[in-house]
Amino acid sequence: MDTSTDFSLFPITTTINSKGHLSIAGHDLADLAATYGTPLYIYDGATIRAQLDRLKTLFKHYYSGEAMVAYASKAYFSRSFAARLAALGTGSDVVGLGEIHVAQSAGFPASVIHLHGNNKTGAELQAALDWNIQAIVVDSLDEMAYLETLAARRMQVARIWLRITPDLNVNTHPHIETSHSDSKFGLHIQNGEAAEAIQRALASPWLNLTGLHTHLGSQIFEAEPYRQAIEMLFEVAAANHYTPQEISPGGGWGVRYTDADPIDDAEPWVKTVAETVQESCARYGWQIPRLVLEPGRWLAARAGVALYSVGTQKTTPAGTHIVAIDGGLADNPRVALYQAHYTARVVQRAAAPPTEKMRLVGKFCESGDVLIPEIVLPPVERGDLLATPAAGAYQLSMASNYNLAARPAALWLEDSEVEVMQCCEQPDQPGWWVYSGQKP
């Protein structure tokens, strides 16, 4: 099978141009790398819109009530990226003061913002109350008491959801599973916290409980756990005489990183969620609530591509051919954290047959700085460019300055437009890092 033109992991506008180079939204990736340097992250606007349109179409088909998409900002957020999402009519799931301020400055209305986090600070809660967002998602009984005190002091009723942990195990990496009985997140059903939280919220004059939320984790390809979790939310609500106006089963639907990954169309996810909510409402005789899904990775991952330049090559005594790139652990820690799997294409010879087995490693001083442990590519030379697909989520947002590396630039691509959403940091500029302990 000829895989040279299979770009199902790449943005939907990906092609091979007349030079034999990879092109996205009509832009030659080699030209972009020459202009903006590498590592370089690009986002394809058409792919973001297509992913969002797919969810909206599924909502219309399967859900008879109001439904909305709230982007999980932790996947990747910058002011320019956020402004484009706001213009597309999404909501936003934010965690922390920084994401609150970016969402606010990007033009999101307060009515589509939800604040998450297992240890929200006073400043974060105050900012959410000041902005009067749709919901502060209460994560613990302790946080509920703290928020109630803040709200009473301000003489302001706080709109809240409760994050309920259903104590379910799902099939994903342990570091991105959030719904098990030993999770740090949420109000657990098993120990009675969820029931107590509902009762306390309903009894409080300073808390307006508008909805229930849960989140199972990330990279989930099975819809059944969502059904189980939603049914458990309805059961605990009914047992405590509470009818939610809003229900959110979070996000977490998986995406493909390699050809070996399962199909990632969102239909099984949306269909199962929508049907379970509606069936549960019919069972209890409740009105259908507003349904809120919080995809981050599923909206952003495929739209993003990371570009790297090839540097040093060597062969180990064990016979492994090592090819080093100019990025790695500092811009993409997912391989080290989650044993994530990736693939890559040679930008300048996009249709060339793969003939050489190699290991792609980063440039940082860690043995674990390996991007792809084994891949077969066309032979590469110093200066060649490698494009890694499905790079739009949880890479730049988790990037660091390890070894004082500069975090790379990020571009938004349209057919006739290149927007710099995030400039490459410049470590040679004054005030970049000061180790003396003195104020810069």
Question: What's this model, at a glance?
Answer:
With 440 residues, this protein is an alpha/beta fold.
Describe the structure in your own words.
With 440 residues, this protein is an alpha/beta fold. It folds into 2 domains: 15-37 and 303-422, Lyase, Ornithine Decarboxylase, Chain A, domain 1; 46-298, TIM Barrel. It has 11 helices and 21 strands. It has helices at 29-36, 45-62, 79-87, 97-105, 122-131, 141-154, 193-203, 224-239, 267-284, 297-300, 334-338; strands at 15-16, 22-24, 27-28, 40-44, 67-72, 91-95, 113-116, 135-138, 158-165, 187-188, 207-213, 246-250, 290-293, 304-315, 321-325, 345-346, 356-361, 370-377, 385-388, 409-414, 417-422. It starts with 14 loop residues before the first strand and ends in an 18-residue tail after the last strand. Residues 434-440 have low confidence and may be disordered.
Overall shape: it is elongated
CATH superfamily of the largest domain: Alanine racemase
Distance between the termini: 58 Å
Helix content: 25-40%
Hey, roughly how much beta strand do the residues contain?
Answer: 15-25%
CATH class of the largest domain: Alpha Beta
The number of E-state strands comes to 21
Number of domains: 2
What's the rounded overall pLDDT mean?
A: 93
Return residue spans where pLDDT drops below 50 for at least 5 consecutive residues. Answer: 434-440
CATH architecture of the largest domain: Alpha-Beta Barrel
Helix/strand class: alpha/beta
* Helix segment tally: 11
Main sheet makeup: 9 strands, mixed
- Tell me the Rg in angstroms: 23 Å
